[in-house]
TrEMBL record:
It is an enzyme of class 3 (hydrolase). This is Futalosine hydrolase. Pathway: Quinol/quinone metabolism; menaquinone biosynthesis. Its EC number is 3.2.2.26. Residues 50-212 form the Nucleoside phosphorylase domain. It comes from the Bacteria. Belongs to the PNP/UDP phosphorylase family. Futalosine hydrolase subfamily.
Length: 242
C-alpha cells in the first residue's frame, strides 16, 4: 500500500490526510511536492502523512507547525511525529551537495546575543532552549535508512555567505552537518505540543562563500524524494485507519 499524502500550503486546510500521524513541514511548495512524491512512492505500508509548506524561516515554520498541530489535536487526531524537511546547506566534508543530512540536534545557531567576548546562545542568557534533540535512536535510525550524514543541523535566519562565518559556526557547533532556516521553529512548535521532532535536509549548496550559481536545487529535491521514499519503512508507523 502506498502512502496517502495530503498536500497544501500553510494557509489552507483539508482533511485528505486524516488517517495520518506524521506531519512533514517544508518551507516552499517545491520541497512539499518532493516530499509527497517520495512518500507516495514508498513500498512499505504507511499511515497517510500530511505535508505542508509553512514558509521560509523559523517564525513562519513555527506558526504553520503550531497551527497544524493544534488543529489536529483539537480534532482528536494528534500527530505523533513532526519532521522538518527541505533543502539546506552542507558543511564540508560531512555533507556534500546532493547528499542527505539528518539532525541529531536541531540548533538555534544565531538566536542569542553578540557580546565583546563572542556569541551567547539564548539558553545561556536564561531564556528557553537553544536546541532540540531528536528522541532516542530515531535520528540515527532515519539517517541510516536514507544514507545521510548525522549531526547537529543549524537553524539560521541568514544564509551563511562567507568562509569566516562558516568557520565560526563549525567552531561553535563541532560536527555540524547542515544549516537551514526552519528546523528550530518547527521543533519549538513540536516541543510546545509534546510531539517528537526530526529534521531531514537534502544538500543543495555548500555552507561557505556565497555562490548562487553553484546551488543544485533540482538535485537536492530529487534526493529529498528518494529519502522520503525510504522513510516510511524506517519509521515503522502503523497502518492507516479511517
Ligand atoms: O542567495 C540566494 O541567491 C538564494 C537564492 C535562492 C534561495 C535562497 C535561499 O536562501 C533559500 C532558503 C531556503 O532554502 C534553505 N536553504 C538552502 N540552503 C541553505 C543554506 O545554505 N543556508 C540556510 N538555508 C538554506 C532554507 O531552509 C530556506 O528554506 C537564496
Amino acid at each position: 500500500m502506498s502512502a496517502r499524502v495530503s498536500e497544501r500550503d500553510g494557509g489552507g486546510r483539508d482533511r485528505a490526510g486524516r488517517g495520518g500521524r506524521l506531519l512533514v513541514v517544508t518551507a516552499v511548495a517545491a520541497e512539499r511536492d518532493a516530499v509527497s512524491a517520495g512518500l507516495a512512492s514508498a513500498s512499505s505500508a504507511m499511515v497517510g502523512a500530511t505535508v505542508i509548506a509553512g514558509g521560509v524561516g523559523p517564525a513562519a515554520a513555527a506558526a504553520a507547525t503550531a497551527t497544524e498541530l493544534t488543529l489536529a489535536a483539537a480534532a482528536g487526531e494528534p500527530y505523533t511525529l513532526v519532521v522538518s524537511a527541505g533543502i539546506g546547506g552542507g558543511f564540508a566534508p560531512a555533507a556534500p551537495v546532493g547528499s542527505l543530512a539528518v539532525a541529531e540536534t536541531i540548533v538555534a545557531a544565531d538566536l542569542g546575543a553578540q557580546t565583546p567576548d563572542g556569541f551567547v546562545p539564548v539558553a545561556d542568557l536564561g531564556f528557553g532552549v537553544s536546541e532540540h534533540r531528536t528522541p532516542g535512536r530515531l535520528g540515527r535510525t532515519l539517517a541510516d535508512a536514507v544514507g545521510a550524514s548525522y549531526g547537529p543541523v543549524l537553524t539560521v535566519s541568514t544564509v551563511t555567505g562567507s568562509a569566516e562565518r562558516a568557520a565560526e559556526l563549525t567552531a561553535r557547533h563541532p560536527g555540524a552537518v547542515a544549516e537551514a532556516m526552519e528546523g528550530f521553529g518547527v521543533a519549538e512548535a513540536a516541543a510546545a505540543a509534546g510531539v517528537p521532532v526530526a529534521e531531514v535536509r537534502a544538500i543543495s549548496n555548500a555552507v561557505g562563500p556565497r555562490d548562487r550559481a553553484a546551488w543544485r536545487i533540482g538535485e537536492a529535491l530529487a534526493a529529498l524524494t528518494t529519502a522520503f521514499g525510504k522513510l516510511p519503512a524506517a519509521l515503522e508507523v502503523g497502518p492507516e485507519h479511517d
